[in-house]
Amino acid sequence: MTERAKPRLIPMVIVCLAVVAGLKLLGAFVAFSGAEAQSAISVTPAGLPIDEPLESPEIAPAEVERRILERLAARRAELEQREREFELRESVIAAAEAKLAQQFEEFEKERAEIAALREERDAASAEEIEALVSAYERMKPREAAAIFNDLDATILLSVASQMRTQALAGVLAEMQPVKARALTVMMAERGQAPVTLQEVAQ
Length: 202
Prior knowledge:
By secondary structure, this protein is mainly alpha-helical. The chain has 2 domains: 60-138; 139-201, no CATH class. The protein is 82% helix and 0% strand. The protein has helices spanning 2-41, 61-138, 141-150, 153-160, 165-174, 177-189, 195-201. Helix 2 crosses helix 4 (153-160) and helix 5 packs parallel to helix 7. Residues 1-7, 35-56 and 194-202 have low confidence and may be disordered.
C-alpha cells in the first residue's frame, strides 16, 4: 500500500506546481499590462510626460471666496470712481447755477434802478411840461406862437396837449400856418384835437 501511494503523489505535486507557475505568469502579465497602460496615459504624443492631469481638480472654497471678494472690491472701486465723477459734475453744475443766479440778481437790480431812474425822469419831465404849460398859457398868444414855431415837435406836442383849448387856440392863430397845421394833425392822431382847434388851424 505505501509503495503504490508514492507514485500517485508525484503527479499531483507536479500538477499543483504547474498551476502555481501559471498563476504567477498570469499575475506578472496583468501587472505589466497595467504599468504599460499607465505609462501610455502619462505620456504625450511627443513622448513627454504630462505635468498636470487631464481633468483639473475642483476649486477650493477658500479660492472661490477670494475670487468673489476680489470682484466685489473691483466693482466697489468702480462705483466709487463713478460717484466721485458724478459729485464733481454736480459741483460744477451747482457753481454754474450759483453764478447764473448771481448774474440774474444783478440784472434785476440794474433793471430796477433803471426803472426808478426812468420814473424820476418822467416825473421831472412831467413837472417841466406842467411848468411850461403854465408859462405859455400866461404868455400872450403871439409871444407863445413865436416859440412854438421853433420848438421841437415832441416837446411841442407834449406842451400843447396839456394846454387849455382857449389858450392853445389863440397861440395857433398866431403860429405859422404850416406849423399850426402840423401840430393839429399830431394832436388829432392822438385824439386830443378838439373841433374848434381844427377850425383855427385851417
